[in-house]
Amino acid sequence: MGNIIATIKRFLSNKNTVTIIGVMLGIVVLYVGYNYRVKSAIDTIKIPYAKKTITATTEITSDMVGLADVLRSTVSNNKTLISNVNNVVNTATPNCVRVGTAIPQGSYFYTEQVDTCSKIPVNVFQNMPDGYKPVTLPVDIQSTYGNSMYPGDYIDLYISMRQGLLVFGEFITKLPILDVRDSSGNSVFLTSVPTTPTALVFAVPKELYLLLSKAKLLSGISLIPVPGNASYTSEAGSTSVSSEFLRTEIENRTAKIPDETIPD
């Protein structure tokens, strides 16, 4: 036994032996580390996606949902992506698509798009802030750029009028669309095939409600909705009148009610 131990000590005391062992251990560590990184890079997970377009307020059922393989690293870095199909399809507590959004065919599900059906309001006006009023703007398929304006989008309103010369300019900026309605008063995007839009619905403070209503009722004035891109909708900013000249023109064409009160 003592001879064996002495032999091992002599073996390990040899510098060449130690070098070889160190190199071999380094190779093992590199191999294990490389395989771990490769596996992590290609490791996939199944996450739910929409097999067809699911419109606002629609209950999400199993036949609408498929499973797709995506990189696990992609899922772990996205806090709003729903990776568990049970958080999308739930027979005990059904989930619906939130008002003001839709889930396109082939898209994944995100937490801001889905909520329990019991929390989805049937009437879009239920969520209006206090002191706000609903106002509608007549539109058609052309003025909505081929039905490309959606609830939740922010748009600008331009105004056109004549004072001998044509007056055309930006009137109101960052106006959020509450809903898009068809001729029957239904939301355009509630069905799998959107219907033809006839009105945009907004919720605005009382001052803007009065101003927009006057502009709509005055003859010779046209209000034109102009959409922005995705970043325009996501950027912070409040609805505001962008032209005091146009505001004054509208106010000068209407009588002021003596006891009319407008919030400061």
Structure description:
With 264 residues, the chain is α+β, with helices and mostly antiparallel strands. It has two domains: 76 residues, Alpha-Beta Complex (Type Iii Antifreeze Protein Isoform Hplc 12); 129 residues, no CATH class. 27% of the residues lie in helices and 26% in strands. The protein has six helices and ten strands. The strands form three sheets. Strands 5, 6, 7, 8, 9 and 10 form a six-stranded antiparallel beta sheet that branches. Strand 6 and strand 7 form a beta hairpin. The chain starts with a helix and ends in a 12-residue tail after the last helix. The mean pLDDT is 83.
Write the layout of secondary structure elements.
Elements: H1 2-13, H2 15-42, E1 44-50, E2 65-71, H3 72-76, E3 95-97, E4 114-116, E5 132-138, E6 154-163, E7 165-181, E8 199-205, H4 206-217, E9 222-227, H5 230-234, E10 240-241, H6 244-252
Antiparallel strand pairs: 1-2, 3-4, 5-8, 6-7, 6-9, 7-8, 7-10
Q: From N to C, what is the helix and strand string?
A: HHEEHEEEEEEHEHEH
> Number of DSSP helices?
6
Mean pLDDT: 83
Task: Please report the distance between the alpha carbons of the first and last residues.
Answer: 98 Å
Shape: elongated
By secondary-structure content and strand pairing, the structural class works out as alpha+beta
Specify Rg, calculated over alpha carbons: 31 Å
Point out poorly predicted stretches. none
The main β sheet shows up as:
6 strands, antiparallel
Kindly state the percentage of residues in helix: 25-40%
Percent strand equals: 25-35%
The beta-strand count equals 10
Number of domains: 2
